[in-house]
Fold each of these.
Amino acid sequence: MRLVTTTSVEVDTILARAIYNETGQILLNEGVVLKEGMIQRLQALGISYIFIKDNQTEDIQYKSTLSDPVRREAIQTINSIFLEIQKDANLTNSFVVEKASRRLSELIRFLMAELAEDKELINLLSDAFSYDNYIFTHSLNVTLYSLAIGMELKLSPKELETLGLGAIFHDIGKLKVPLDVLLKPGRLTEEEYIAIKEHAEAGFQILRKVQTIPLLVAHCAYQHHERINGSGYPRGISGKDIHYFGKIIAVADVFDAVTSNRVYRKAMLPHEGLEILYAGSGTLFEKQVVEAFRYAVAIYPVGITVELSDGRKGIVSGQNTGLGDRPIIRIMEHDGEQVEPYELDLKIELNIVVTACDTTF
């Protein structure tokens, strides 16, 4: 399979992976022959990238970190819990959140077990590029990225559970932000931007009153937009004043935000998201956390076409555990000339690096 943009895919191309909406319903199933109307519909939904079948790469298979059924069940669990919390108009009933925290703790323990069993790099691309409803899928993705970072940093199971709960609840304050502001496609007014920024403190105020939730979980919601140079919000704290979990969730949050579709912009590819993290490493984000993220997450997903520093071009066919930016490449071209396909392992060929990605068909 190959990864291509919906703006470059040709009519009658075969879809290699099903596309779901935020409730887990299939928009288009695997094996569907894409027609003009389908492609236009995908573009209208904001879906930027899809996996397609290709004769030269039919043996290359993308493997998501969570199976489609497990992911749908997790999102539906988060969805139902958050909607139940939202029914309390002022979000003041701590009993509702307390009950929800027990169910979410069970979900986090399950996700921890899934990640521990599967030693491969975290790979959420096919899910991240599906049309999502902003809060629920984002909360799951940020939790998975945060747990992956925490595992790379050798946190204890108890610490991971607390971190996971902080990650899954990090945006709970957005339940108090009007949906038309959250999903506004155009530029926010100053008042709307202030309303968005208030979600961090709102989340803290909701969670700190819940006796069954560690206070640290509330601080994760409070601090995930703080930056180590003091340029973040809501308090503008810096350095050691920001809890380590807040620094972890900050990295996970930014990466998922920029690599997921939003009504106001298209998704970036993972390597572009990593470049944003690297640009802020040491100033906005903790260096150790960014490095742990790089080791744990697949930066160049299977199926994507890449260009190498020596003029060769190929498709990512596999990953190297612990080396998210050093995948295995199936070489297809050299200096613009097609060659007999062969595998090149960047874990071994250390003098060669990926210089560009190409998602055109």
Amino acid sequence: MLFEKIKSEILAHNSYVIGSGGEAAVIDPRRDCLIYGSIAGRENMKITKIFETHKNEDYVIGSRELARPTGAEILHGAREAFGFGTGVREGETFMIGSLEIEVLETPGHTVESISLLLRDRSVSDDPLMVFTGDALFAGDVGRTDLAGEDLRREMSEMLYASLHEKILPLPDGVIVCPAHGAGSVCGGNISDREYTTIGFEKATNRLLSMEREEFVESKVNERLYEPPYFTMMRKLNREGPPLIYNLPHLRAYSAREIRFLLDKKAQIVDIRSPTSFAGGHIPGTLNIWRQGLPLYMGYYLNYEDPIVLVDDFNLDLDRVVRHFVRLGYDNIAGYLAGGFAAWFRQGEEIERAGTWSPTDLAEHLDDPSVWILDVRNVNHREEDGHIAGSHHIYVGHLEEHLAEIPEEKQIVVHCDVGFKGSLAASILEKHGFRNVTNLLGGTVGWAAANYPLLKD
């Protein structure tokens, strides 16, 4: 039996390849899908089935892209009309060699969500694994707010029923294979655990021990952020995303061309570190560090205007491009040839962002001309504590609250360490704020320097 989990970094997306008897199936494939064919080819197997556990909101699904070269059948939940594939219902079974896949309808995260129960009939009739999509994670369950606030209670009730009537009655030894791991925005607090079982989740997952009403109230009152790009993901994944065939080819732009593109509303994204960005950057550019791209590009980039990258040495840009393609940004166009050095060698104007250490901020904590802006997730602010006198606006919602920030004061932005703080500083600068400082080290450095974090 073939079983392989493919992890997509940062998005914390899990997809799976299973196979037997010369056949293979892929569950929840990503859009850059060559890896699945490579795995199947290595095992002398042909991919014949592709399963989507739900339409997904945080990345572009890869089933159409994978079906093109393989000819595999795409299967998804039948409770919502898709523009492609075949809808499946509760109890339907599919054979992949000796492996039997049984469909369990498990709505709640989305209405059409399904889980896939796997048996290896050559060994036993007992269930071996269950692919739970976004219904059940290690240490958490799926979010129920994405259908809208008016349906949140109903979706939470559906999820409770799916968990307690379909998934948890399975034998304790059944291996749980979710569509996401720790760090995904599709759950509130997914555990950093590679594998789990039904029995382990029943014993340790706090949400699973709740009675129905407590569970529903917990999910209804859960505070999670929804990036704006989720709307585009739902549309693409329901209708069928466009085929890309290969990763986009990036064009190398000269510094003069970049200056021209800025005038034409191109989206220039500086992917360097906060310290590099603070030392000097192209005016009006957005600073999203490499590892933060999948998490924050969806808040601030549109799907129409060309996207151009600025780095120091332009290393491993193929990996960066994958982040954009997985979120449907096919308008990724190019990069600054020669890196940021090419910009200042030409004598172009540069902008700088201020930086402070925790000690610098402590010395100005009572200064009325300083306005401290905390851009962390609100749950981190409440759980870890906050700096005295700080104001809170989540970095993803910053543009919606610019009027609340006093332009005449020195704005000291902070997050946990400094990366989201640099993103926030770049957004403020782009909107005309001229006295912005990023607290390097954030609350982590603040606490390490033995300064207090307050809790309400």
Amino acid sequence: MERYRVAIVGTGGIAGSHMQACQELRDRVKVIAAVEIDRARGASFCDQYNIPRLYTDVTEMLEAEKPDLVQIATPPATHYSLALRCLEAGAWVLCEKPLCTSLAELDHIARIEKQHGIYCSSVFQWRFGSGAKHLRHLIQTRTLGRPLVGICQTTWYRDQAYFEVPWRGKWATEGGGPTMGHGIHLMDLFVWLLGDWDEVCAMADTLDRAIEVEDVSMAVVRFKQGTLGSIVNSVLSPRQESYLRLDLQQATVDLRALYSYTNQDWRYHVIEPGSQEHSSIPGEVVASHAAQLAALLESMDRKEQPVASTLAVRPTLELITCIYKAAASGQTIRSGSIAESDPYYYHVAGKREPQPQ
């Protein structure tokens, strides 16, 4: 197994999670450089984590260091251009959510991946915990019957001061409110567990925060296998919780957590006593950046598409885009209906932008 050379782009709060993952996997990766436009903050970060070189320009870093993997931990509006530059320089990418802020950008990234034969992976660490993997296996094998009803609730709290950071709360720089920036993790897990979805209707509003984007959204989604799901995303909820519930023909399975989960956070209520054994989750892998990074490194070893690669997460970004369109139009929006002729293809708020070339 190769030990890969890694660069970190962005040294803000979430970069600490990336560095923790790298430290846990130090036998597989070596962090050789960081990029930060604020030199003082970058220097402090490098000192803290013993990173040998600091750059203020990503292109300069890519040319000088030629990393195998770049981990992007910058604000959302920068992800797309940074991911492209890294891929074109020959580096694999692990990028914070959202990977990009439009279907047009995502499809362009996928084309660049194909051209260069390497991949960009979106940080969706909730897919990689042992509890989620176990439940997905049970769903796919119909061990507990078909999933019938789903609940996906990200009810978090962010006060007004949180949005005083210049890039937050704006369509151009954050790409959306809790639908895009907070509930995206649990919604991705919801879609990953239940598979392709068919149609969605929704409402969204800005009820209490002085921001451009929504501070709450609610949606009802029908999956192609027939499951009906309810989705709530909020930053107005003082008792914070991430809650997922699936009612299958033979069991209810639910998860209560906040930013991560362990096996103990999953609960199974099984109708048939003999099926109780299925609630025993094998192994213990916490949903974390380290769990996803470990899986990505294995994909790099095999030179194969990662679990959360660009095309693999497209259904999640498409659902988010359709929620915004459904909320704005008051219509039910079907999967696959947002094509290149649709303004929502270029912007989740329907603000047409030039198509990436």
Amino acid sequence: MTPRNSLPRLSASAALAALMFLTPACKDNKETAGGGSAAANKPAGAKIALLLPESKTSRYESHDRPHFERKVKELCPECQVIYSNADQDASKQQNQAEAALTNGAQVLVLDPVDAASASGIVARARQSKVLVISYDRLIAQADVDYYISFDNEQVGKLQGQALADKLKADGKADGTIVVINGSPTDSNAAMFKAGAHSVLDGSGAKIGAEYDTPDWSPDKAQQQMEQAITQLGKDKIAGVYAANDGTAGGAIAAMKAAGMTPLPPVTGQDAELAGIQRIVAGEQYMTVYKAIKAEAEAAAELAVTLARGGQPPAAKVNGKVNNGMKDVPAVLLTPVAVTKDNLKSTVMADGFWTAAQICEGSFKDACAQAQLQ
């Protein structure tokens, strides 16, 4: 069953502001943080493990990691971040978590490769009395302490609604679409899928082919799109639901190779630079922008508080999400649909990507036409 949020969402900025209270001062290890009573027993130089799932999606190395590490350093200079990336290998992540625990990590901030098997990591952390924050992806069937992410079903709804609206505007509301979902081992992918179907299934569009994409691999998404083109015919595809920018890139590569002109509208997610550039160039219709800086900083603040023995007041955590074992206290940020029309007021206004980054090389002319420079 797809987990559902039980409380209203906050905007990214509001959710981040709500967490500012979480961070205790690091200068005095006898202070009690956030109303907790155990801070005096915690060393000033706490160890926090950040365990990220993969690097094929560029956000993790270019945004999540640096924002998290910078915020921890800012809040607690003596704290040490133990960082690992599992490269989409659940066994490797298990070993990395074990190494972090052996190295004395007091909090695990874990973005799981496999939402189900990661429950074993949580159980092992519990044996060592180590707290676990489920970051971005929800760990299933596990005694997780907190969950920090976006409203992931809403992400799918934004994607599905954007595609349905575009098809209607193009006079193709009842057209045939291809659906390329995310990895079946990612709990978020199930929520994106559920959100998208909640819109698309009643939109009048016909789903001609649908796939789940192992490892979120752009190459596999390209192969899936090639199969769909062969099955349906390149002139019969009115739109493509792609769950993120990587799979969108794979689908677009397949359509360009097949000579599809003009390209049908394609959705995406993560506001990756390549995805934003495709939007500017007219190859991808939309993406979903998630304020990763706010997410990573919120996780860092919570991790520092917990590592110092503090406990955030429950009233400041704005949601709960059931992971099959418990209702996990959650901080849920709000995603935003981005098209060429609102690039300036979203990803560029936040400094997520600058005009110089977006408009380099072959994208200079397209940026000029879109008045981004």
